[in-house]
Amino acid sequence: MEPTPLPVSIEEIEAALADGSLDPDPPARAGKLPPTQERSRRRRDALLRAAIEVLAESGAKSVTHRAVAARAKLPAASTTYYFESIDQLTEEALRLHVSERVAELEALAATAAAGGKSAEAVARRFAEALADRSREAVIAQYEVYLEAARVPALREPVAQALDAFERLAEASLAALGAHHPEQAAAAFVAMIDGFALHRLARPDSDRDGAAALFEALRALFLSYTMDDDERERRLAKLREPLR
Prior knowledge:
Oligomer: single chain
Helix content: over 70%
Number of strands: 0
CATH class of the largest domain: Mainly Alpha
Shape: elongated
CATH architecture of the largest domain: Orthogonal Bundle
Structural class: mainly alpha
């Protein structure tokens, strides 16, 4: 039996993908086809999630074509079929991770708000939920932050990720009655990130991470419950000479 000739045109390749006769394990080619078939979408999604897993487990330097394909249990050439470069793969994996992270936080905020009878109760429930986050997800998030400091191509998607977190914080703070929630949002996101980073560095600490985060969130929130006049009076006292 003679071997089936390889498809040579875009139309033939698309037809081969549709009937399953072409597996995305070809030699590298100049053009990349959009993943139009369900199997292709599943494989592409698996590669993105595998990239995040490798990132969390071994760091950004370990995110290679071979490592990601192996983690996804797909042919070695799969990553080069779906992505032009490791940078593109990492960037799209980050976008997927962030979108799911924002959705997760939105759900946490909604659950906390629904079960809380006061702003303090909502903050306590939210802090407890944040303290229970997956360690792997937190590591992946900060690995990408660090890599963005070294790789300029990642700075824009990381900035967009932080913007998304801050928009969520702003909406939550506004719903709880904070003054100037747009100004407060960045401070709250930075505080939450800092507590999560410390928890990674001291996983066996005897400190109650949820309780400590709640106290910090409450203290910061208090400063944004004051009206402008009261806030200015308190700031003026801070500027008085120490005795």
